[in-house]
Amino acid sequence: MSLSGSLLNAFPLSQPIGVFDSGLGGLTVLQALRARLPGEDFIYFADTHHLPYGDKSESFIQARSKAIATALTERGAKAVVVACNTATAAAAELIRAAIPKPVVALEPAVKPAAALTQSGVLGVLATTRTLVSRRFAHLVETYAHHLFVLPQACPGLAEAIEAEGPHSASVERLLDIYVPPLARAGADVVVLGCTHYPWVKAGIAARLPSGVTLVDTGEAVARQVERRLMRESGLGGRGQLQLMTSGDPVHVRNTIARLCGVSMHVTHWDIR
Ligand code: DGL
Prior knowledge:
12 helices, 2 domains, four-stranded parallel beta sheet, seven-stranded parallel beta sheet, binds D-glutamic acid
């Protein structure tokens, strides 16, 4: 994956689309957004200092998500994309109530997966916090109540992807624990219910029988953002991108280089 075509701009963008995640998983969504909306400006905020969200309390994630969405709006964002399943599960409604801008949130792709399965067995890889949420229970009840849904929490995986890289021994070890149970249960469709997991798609696929379909949400979210902008705030920008983090910008820049193969400027932003 790459963020090719990215321009960087040290100055505030006038009407960017704000995108955030607990870390760099949301870059998998940003790539789909930039591919679909190349003329838009984006500001991406990685809440690296608080990664992972998946093991934190609901109230903590709600407070962070609200603060970040508000800060992005105050910085001029014309729309906010919650590029994190965990933040959506805990805080989507809260964010929508807090800011007067279009909010597009993403959730595990259970609906499209339910339409694809032949075996009737769906695997869902996600964070603990996403899988125990009321929102996830509702999603399964609505679209997959007639199927066997196997939720597999993956503690440690998002951090290992960022800290040690998608091909590291720690990631391989975690995938060896989390993926084989889905294969044994006969899942023919596996939902990547965390935006970090597309970074390890090949490693997941390698542990499943060939022919198993992996589903993620990046492109569907990009289409939804396009529809909302056309209806509500309008399209237009200069194709620029700002990357910001609550963590150490040098560390984040190095992690982006490892994940995307490009060197990007990253700025610290202390959102409280
Ligand atoms: N990328 C986030 C998601 O989509 C989760 C990673 C984390 O645990 O912070 O759920």
